[in-house]
Amino acid sequence: MSLYDVFFDLTRAEMHLWDRIDDALRAEIDVPLGRFEALLVLRRLGPCRILDVSRELALTVGGTSKLVDKLETTGLCLRAPNPDDRRSSLITLAEAARAVVDRGEAVIDVTLRSHLGVHLSSDELSALRRALHVLRQASRADTSPV
Questions:
Q1: pLDDT (tens digit, 9 = 90+) per residue, 45-57?
Q2: Tell me, what CATH number does 90's domain have?
């Protein structure tokens, strides 16, 4: 087994799983997974700046701004002037988005159970989670400013 084999399996599994979840979310709540992830961040953080969302999603500020523009256009988030910094806005989850997020989480749970949970035992899922956590932490350390 080579590291490339591990990389190939990991990335292909992620792509297939992403596509299945994205398809299910689009069908059920008409929100693609990329936008849904931003809604989850907004719910978790509460009022926050574009920069805060971009850090959570590991996206550029410009890309995050466009993402938030789309959420705002569809009525899923709101922007308000930041009282602490006139150069930025605070983004919040719109009240109408709360039911969308709840429904989306249920859709993701069902999809994950049918495409991931049935193939791995509880112990295997725990081991996978630990290994992925280690890799994510290492990648964050690798990209930290010096």
A1: 999 999 999 999 9
A2: 1.10.10.10
